[in-house]
Amino acid sequence: MKKYIFKSIGLLVAIATLSSCLKDDRLVLDPDKGTNVIEFQNPSDIAVHGSTYALYSIAFPIVTTPTEVPVTVSYSGPADGAPEDITVSVGLGDAATITQYNTENAKTFTLMDPAVYTINATSVVIPKGKKTATFTVSVKTSLFDLTKSYALPLKIKSVSSGTISSNFSNILLNLAAKNKFDGSYTYTSTIFANDRPTILQNTEFLYPVAYDIQLRTSGANSNGLWNGAFGDYLIPILSNTGGVSGFGSTNLQITFDPATNKVLSVVNGIAAPANGRAMSLDPAAPATTNYFDPVSHNVYLQFFMTQPGFAPTKIVAVLKYKGPRP
Fold first, then answer.
1. What is the pTM of this model?
2. What distance in Å separates the CA atoms of residue 179 and residue 144, rounded to the nearest whole number?
3. What pLDDT, in 10s, does the model give residues 55-85?
4. Do the beta carbons of residue 71 and residue 150 sit within 8 Å?
5. 171 with 224, same domain?
6. Do 213 and 147 fall into the same domain?
7. pLDDT per residue as tens digits for the range 182-228
8. Which domain of life is it from (predicted)?
9. CATH number for the domain harbouring residue 276
């Protein structure tokens, strides 16, 4: 009996405690007592969530005139707009942010060459009652070294009022150029690999369109096959049960002849993958494949993937153009 009395008393204490907590105004956020925070607004989707510094990838066509990239700083706080004019000092960030990002995410971004960009302001003003102010960065895409992955670090250096955000006061812009083969595609393929029983083979499949397949510029006339299902360069496949998958350690790099639009070569962009996977064109492929159609913007491929311990895997793929990638 005593056992049940103690349980009842404990329950009453818990209820009373919960009730007192719910009535405690100290646990309720008061927007009128908030902090004015100044930070960079997201110019696009964050590439990798959870990194110390946010990186945003934006690509542009190759043109001979400078391309203007808008960059916005924003105010957030208890008022519906800045309580006064807020001057925000901005400029080039530290190269160390690129090093840390590369280390955290196993990437190889390099500091953007000063010859190809100009930050067009050292400060901007968020007007009283407003929430944002914008400046631009001019980039010369025709001067980009297309073999490099550029990152431009930007930093909020000081503000005349409010608090500088601890999360979004330093950002990285991965600014890239696009050759004529670049874009977003759907991916249809047939894989011939009888010694790989876990994958769908000898049957044409359409990779789920929810996952964007992109050809990302990696050189003046070369592109890497990027798989949106994994956010990485993986050749798309389906499992024998229809599951979305990809060949690991494959960075399919396609080189085109800009004059004829024929595919000159396919290789693995990973120089020495642990599994030894390599790619090469099928020498017996018909003339109706391994080319870029400049009218439809579609790409037709037929190639082999080789790997020690397996017979060569033949892959026939059609990439149908959807439009420019972001």
1. 0.70
2. 11
3. 999 999 999 999 999 999 999 999 899 999 9
4. no
5. no
6. no
7. 999 999 999 999 999 999 999 999 999 999 999 999 888 999 999 99
8. Bacteria
9. 2.40.128
